[in-house]
Amino acid sequence: MGKGSLRDKSQRHSLILSLLKSEDYWTTELLCQKLSISHRTIMRDLAELREIGHPIDSDKGRGGGISLRGRWGLTKLLLNNEEVISMLVSLAVTEAIGTPILGGNLKSIRNRISDSFPLDQKNLIRKLRGRIYVGKLASSEVLNSYMAPKDSILGDLNIAFFHEKVLVMKYKDGQDKISEREVEPQIILLNWPVWYFLCWDRTKNDKRLFRVDRILKIKLTNQNFALRNPGNLTKGLEEYFEQL
């Protein structure tokens, strides 16, 4: 099964749970119509959701009723992996800024949020968190040359990072030298508000650090890359950054 089908299933599971929470009672026929899937698929999805801990009750028969016991899970969050990571990064930034009202609870909150999801999604989130490192706020020297990245570039960067796609990009370094690179966006580093991508640079056959606001143009490819050992990539950066 390809990665696309796995993502479709995860989205379908989230939709099923959302529908079950919206009403006290559903029939399998209505769920099939709502999701445009077969009876066989909905029954398989319901069984998989039960296996990972969701208390779903059902009556026997093709038109049997489906319900979420006690409307369970209203305190759970129905978010995709990208949305979860965005929320965790926001909390990490708040922690880095040093908001006095929230004190030192933010790291605990981040962990509790991650643990609140079903096991299959929790494992994917843990994997993504291991690829994101947060440090202190950017220095005044860096901020003097910083410009907000283009939205068009950020969209493709997000896709490449979350779905492990190779990028071809045009990059301008600190000396205004422009080069074209073929890269694997392995790790994100954040010194708020400045983002960096720690990549495996296929052009140089070595790891390279790229500041996102210095990326001039990118092209998203359909080629997947393999994740490399983050410890090797981040060697020497441990004292400046902490995993999300």
Question: What is this structure, in a nutshell?
Answer:
The chain is α+β, with helices and mostly antiparallel strands. It contains nine helices and ten strands. Strands 4, 5, 6, 7, 8, 9 and 10 form a seven-stranded mixed β-sheet that branches. A three-stranded antiparallel β-sheet has the order 1-3-2.
List the main descriptive attributes of the protein structure presented here:
alpha+beta, 9 helices, elongated, 3-stranded antiparallel sheet, 3 domains, Arc Repressor Mutant, subunit A, disordered N terminus, 244 residues, 7-stranded mixed sheet
What does this structure look like?
It contains nine helices and ten strands. The protein has 244 residues and is α+β, with helices and mostly antiparallel strands. It folds into three domains: 3-71, Winged helix-like DNA-binding domain superfamily/Winged helix DNA-binding domain (Arc Repressor Mutant, subunit A, Orthogonal Bundle), CATH 1.10.10.10; 81-129; 140-243, no CATH class. Strands 4, 5, 6, 7, 8, 9 and 10 form a seven-stranded mixed beta sheet that branches. β7 and β8 (206-211) form a beta hairpin. α2 (28-35) crosses α3 (39-51) and α4 (81-97) runs antiparallel to α5 (106-115). The radius of gyration is 21 Å and the shape is elongated. The two termini are 29 Å apart. The relative contact order is 0.11.
Work out the helix count: 9
Describe the largest sheet: 7 strands, mixed
Distance between the termini: 29 Å
> In angstroms, what is the radius of gyration?
21 Å
